[in-house]
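Board notes (copied after class):
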Amino acid sequence: MTAPTLLSPRTLLPAELQTTADYIRATQLPDGAIPWYAGGKLDPWDHTEAAMALSVAGNYSAAEHAYHWLAQQQLDDGSWFANYFPGAATEQCGNTHQQLRETNFVAYVATGVWHHFLITRDRSFLASMFPCVRRAVEFVLRYQSDFGEIAWAVDVNGVGQNDALVTACSSVLRSLDCACHIAQALGVPERRWKSAADRLAAALLTKPERFDRTWESKTRFSMDWYYPILAGLFTAHEARTRIATRWHEFVVAEMGCRCVNDEPWVTMAETSELVIALVASGEPEKARQLYDTLHQWRDSDGGYWTGYVFRDRTIWPDDKTTWTAGAVILAADALFALTPAHEIFLQRRKSDDETA
């Protein structure tokens, strides 16, 4: 599909933000599931990302419906399959006997549940979802090695895959911190979860050899660059230094952030997440400038195109994913403090007066 004429970068207005949330809501199925787009598949991580955006927009019942869908679909061991295909029976979706369970997908429910509570302060919701969160966290921690990293996926026999990903483990780390907050809020602190999170953080900071052991390094992906910032691993100064060292590899002026540094492809979700990382790094003006590039990729129905191949001046792929819309809304919240949950990805595990 040929790209439309590019609009001038500008700030998304609140009414337009609500239209983007309405786009997500219109895609949500009656049972609460949020597929990537109408008729598409869903995965637990992106489903949760979209639900978080619904919470930001004040669509609380729709968000809770999405979390209840997760609770209903949770497997006996606490996990979810990596992919679901609405319209197929749950036990048959995508030939589940051959599916992996991705640990960061499983853990992300804790981030979503804590995020919703920060906005609504609904303790009954938090308590009702805690068993689901607990089972998910316990599943994930079974696959933490003695070195601290967590296997990226688990096969149908419960065997962890023998490698770890920086991006995935960074996402798990943020989710573990959120799970600890949930437990503490409910008066059932989980010291073991805190210890596991600390060991995972140490692995990410000091044991690079524990990641990408069996395949080519994933450093060409922009997520490996900024996700450790979203996990709160660095001081603001350290985060700014990290951003600066590879900015020229990933950011295309007036376009957004590349998915990988060797392809002429900017993606709106990565751009949105980088906006949040910039806010977390103490660079709100730079974040605002990058955020303002996003809205040239917004369609009239409120959805955002997933990516743009600037070499060919072509939208690709030809879809508007709900998780892309969700990432844009979460970026707006981080940047403009729209809700009490706006700092969920901004909190740092080290203060600015601590050294690396």
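Comment from the instructor: Residues 1-8, 89-97 have pLDDT under 50 and may be disordered. The domain at 31-215 is CATH 1.50.10.10 (Glycosyltransferase).
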